[in-house]
Write a structure and sequence with these properties.
It is built from seven helices and no strands. It is an all-alpha fold. The longest helix has about 40 residues.
Length: about 140
Amino acid sequence: MKKLGIVLLILIVVIGAGSYFAYKKALNVVADKMIDQVANQLTDTDIQQIKNDPDVKAFLASGNPNDANLPFTTKKEAIQRITQRLSIGDLKELASMASGGLTAEEKEKIKTEFESKFSPEEIKALKVVAYKELNK
């Protein structure tokens, strides 16, 4: 009976861990697709706004930017932070909005959503990562 309990406990732990990692992977895939959809919808005006943003300009003006001041510096880290702060429902809603093209109201809604869920430093880091990704 004791062996059966141990086997069941091990199975529960393995299934739980597998489910957790599958959930995290799925969340990252959804976030990555959403970011790609938003990036594909960016107009020249949107790209110019990113380049003219004061945070991005300060980043570029520093010559040798000190990324250590940012909470994250890569697309992967940005996606991880986004998936920590936004639910799957939020990500699906953002992805569906982006798939049909973004209106000015939808862009404002996304901006408001991000400002409520992220600190100013994190928003700055998101802008810098977006700039880096646009210039690859």
